[in-house]
Design a protein that fits this description.
Layout: H1 14-26, H2 66-71, H3 90-99, E1 122-126, H4 132-145, E2 152-156, H5 167-186, E3 191-194, E4 213-217, E5 220-227, H6 230-235, H7 237-251
Parallel strand pairs: 1-2, 1-3, 3-5
Antiparallel strand pairs: 4-5
Length: 252
């Protein structure tokens, strides 16, 4: 048995070294211990170890909603600006519709002007300019009505789409008054509105939104009917049937 495998700087042979390990193993010594503790984990940094404070990240400015971008700030005034500056004839109104900043944050090439002439048989109002499939569907409806293209005035409540509009809020910002002014300039014989969500623009409550009424324009009264949105009519044959029956009653 070799108790000291390493002595006087001379390493014994392989067999002697293996025998020494076996001796310690048989004695129950499996580990090598030391009286001095070792630091195996990195010590936590102290405040003195920090050479400089962290640089704060700049705060991003609060993003405006689509509605806020479309309407501007409260200080910007009412939709359409001062009523005294509104165009007083239909062609001028169409041009103004494409450029007036308070109506939408969309550029001129993204806005859609009203289509049609003054005094049409019927005006069709939708919330936003129509998608291609909605245009085709509306054209089919108008053909079923027997209306010719020159007898229809088509317009939208705003010149470009905005996300999740609050029509009651838009009404209070002046869109209701602007819509009435628009219809007073166009002077259609009837007004058909697709999307009952636009009811606040005509001071119509939810309980009366399914009943035809009249729009007061000074001394003139314009027959007005609110219908479901075109997208809803496209999806539902039952709604199309109900709409058709109400149209026949309205125009009888």
């Amino acid at each position: 048995m070799v108790a000291q495998p390493y002595k006087n700087g001379v390493l014994p042979g392989k067999d002697a070294l293996a025998a020494a390990f076996d001796w310690w193993r048989e004695a129950g010594v499996d580990f090598d211990y030391a009286d001095t503790a070792n630091q195996w984990l990195r010590a936590d940094e102290t405040d003195e170890a920090v050479t400089s404070p962290p640089v704060p990240l700049p705060k991003e400015p609060a993003r405006k909603t689509a509605l806020e971008r479309a309407l501007g700030d409260e200080d910007a005034g009412r939709i359409g600006g001062n009523e005294r500056d509104w165009p007083q004839d239909l062609p001028a109104f169409h041009n103004w519709w494409l450029t007036e900043k308070s109506l939408s944050d969309a550029s001129e090439d993204r806005r859609e002007p009203p289509i049609g002439a003054r005094g049409a048989e019927i005006a069709v109002l939708t919330p936003f300019p129509l998608e291609v499939n909605e245009q085709d569907f509306l054209a089919a409806i108008l053909r079923a009505f027997g209306s010719q293209e020159m007898q229809v005035y088509r317009a939208s409540a705003v010149p470009a789409a905005i996300g999740l509009p609050d029509w009651q809020e838009l009404r209070s910002r002046g869109l209701a008054a602007l819509t009435r002014h628009h219809m007073a300039l166009a002077q259609p014989k009837r007004l058909l509105v697709f999307d009952r969500g636009l009811a606040p623009l005509f001071d119509i409550g939810p309980s009366a939104a399914r009943t035809p009424t009249v729009l007061e324009l000074g001394a003139r009264q314009m027959p007005l009917m609110l219908a479901p949105a075109l997208a809803d009519l496209m999806r539902s044959p039952e709604r199309r049937k109900t709409f058709w029956n109400r149209w026949l009653e309205w125009t009888a």
